[in-house]
Write a structure and sequence with these properties.
There is one protein chain. The strands form three sheets. Strands 4, 14, 15, 16, 17, 18, 19, 20 and 21 form a nine-stranded mixed β-sheet that branches. Strands 5-6-7-8-9-11-12-13 form an eight-stranded parallel beta barrel, surrounded by six helices. It has a three-stranded antiparallel β-sheet with strand order 1-2-3. Helix content is about 30%, strand content about 25%. A hairpin with a 2-residue loop joins β20 and β21.
Length: about 450
């Protein structure tokens, strides 16, 4: 496993942020999500430093779906980034953390009336309209509340980026956005512009997630700049902004390219400047929406080994006390991870094993055929790079308790989310009235 961020081998025991995994296990139990705060802040600052231009302003919006909690919102606020939400729940988490509403942006392909109402009422920064109907909905709410709203329109620009089928978002058949090839597109934009209560900022696109090919982003930039120019000419309007979404790829295992985020940012900026100049387009602000690239590598999951098993078929399993409930990505996308026996880093004997969880599901695997140091019951296995879409996609399948989350830095540990309790699992369950189950 590649050591990431502040990870260190101290006498055979892994430390993150100066805190040993043994201590974390003792205080918080396992499974445990551990975020390396210093490393996360480095990622944010790398983006802030390099996604910059002298030709236009830039905005960095953290895509909160990657990982969201009140503590995370505080970090994003302190770093002065913007943040997005795609649901009432994400919006609530952000607003209830006291985040400045002008730096919140609302996404979603099927936003409810209540969600849109909350956005307008709280005067958030902008709503990214997904389709031709949403402008009307937002406009009516704005009229009712007598408030204006900044909006963008999400475009499907038809890029088939090289990533997992489930996380592609810009194929012609994708459910997101309005296609630039739709013959109605100009009218759709005109309809938005004509609305008294809407202030049209520009176009948004997001070509997919976990994309390593920088040319795909440059291609997106080219299409977005050209399209913005074309529409502004045809409708005789000034379009001040472009939003090119997130999706910057992250190294999970040695099979992935170890991309340098700073280089990707610089290339996108160069491509923006070059294409704006070519198209003679003056743009005031360009936005990106990184999620994974900020949190993935900063997060790890610590598990306790319950035992092992060698099957008749020859598979060697190591069983851990979590699984697909805290990390669905291997089951859903065949995602791969690296891991170590975190309390026995100096163990030289390695084995090829499959790390499996405790769910009643054969696909409940964290790492298939992975090289791991020899371990037994009560040893600690740490899986790295689980910071994005692990906690946020976790579930209570088999009534598993969602793990606690801690942030660590400079030998300090901050509890960000408590481990769920059994009471939490049933707190919303209602008991049937006696007359229904007591029929004799
Ligand atoms: N902006 C928009 C409009 C998005 O839909 C997404 C992700 C992002 C930004 C952030 O993308 P990122 O920088 O995190 O790649 N559950 C999947 C990922 C789904 C991403 C959905 N949209 C996974 O675990 O790989």
């Amino acid at each position: 496993m590649k050591f990431l961020g502040t990870m260190k081998n101290v006498n055979g025991v892994l430390e993150i942020g100066g805190v040993s995994v043994n201590k974390l296990k003792k205080e918080f139990g396992t499974p445990l999500y551990i975020y390396d705060l210093e490393f996360m802040e480095k990622k944010i600052r790398d983006i802030k430093k390099t996604f910059k231009s002298e030709k236009f302003k830039t905005t960095i919006v953290y895509a909160s779906k990657a990982y969201l909690s009140k503590g995370m919102v505080q970090i994003i606020d302190r770093e002065e980034l913007h943040i997005d939400a795609v649901s009432g729940g994400e919006l609530y988490t952000i607003l209830s953390s006291g985040f400045p509403s002008k730096r919140i942006h609302m996404h979603g392909n099927n936003k409810s009336f209540e969600e849109l109402y909350t956005c307008v009422q709280n005067e958030i920064g902008s709503i990214i309209l997904d389709n031709r109907f949403e402008g009307e909905k937002v406009s009516q709410i704005c009229k009712k509340l007598n408030k204006k709203m900044d909006v963008m329109l999400r475009l499907n620009i038809g890029i088939d980026a090289h990533t997992h089928e489930y996380i592609k978002t810009s194929k012609h058949s994708s459910k997101f956005g309005e296609s630039i090839f739709d013959k109605e597109i100009q009218n759709i934009v005109k309809n938005i512009i004509d609305k008294e209560y809407l202030n049209f900022l520009g176009f948004h696109c997001h070509i997919g997630s976990q994309i390593f090919d920088e040319m795909a982003f440059c291609e997106a930039v080219k299409i977005m700049v050209r399209f913005t120019k074309e529409i502004s000419k045809k409708l005789d309007i000034t379009i001040p902004e472009i939003n090119i979404g997130g999706g910057f790829g992250v190294r999970y295992t040695a099979e992935d390219t170890d991309v340098d985020l700073k280089i990707i940012m610089k290339k996108i900026i160069a491509s923006l400047e070059e294409n704006c100049e070519k198209e003679n387009l003056i743009i005031q602000n360009v936005t990106i929406e990184p999620g994974r690239s900020i949190v993935a590598q900063a997060g790890s999951t610590l598990y306790t080994v319950g035992g092992d098993k060698k099957t008749y078929g020859g598979e060697k399993y190591i069983f851990v006390d979590g699984g697909m409930t805290d990390n669905i990505r291997p089951a859903l996308y065949s995602a791969k991870y690296e891991s170590v026996v975190a309390n026995k880093l100096n163990e030289t004997k390695k084995e090829i094993v499959t790390i499996a969880g405790k769910c009643c599901e054969s696909g409940d695997v964290i790492s298939k055929n992975t090289k791991l140091g020899k371990c037994t019951e009560e040893d600690l296995v740490l899986v790295s790079c689980t910071g994005a879409y692990g906690h946020s996609m976790s579930s209570n399948y088999n009534k598993a308790l969602k793990p606690a989350v801690v942030f660590v830095r400079d030998r300090d540990v901050y509890l960000i989310s408590k481990r769920e309790s059994y009471e939490d699992l049933v707190k919303n369950d209602c008991v049937l009235p006696k007359k229904i189950y007591n029929i004799d």
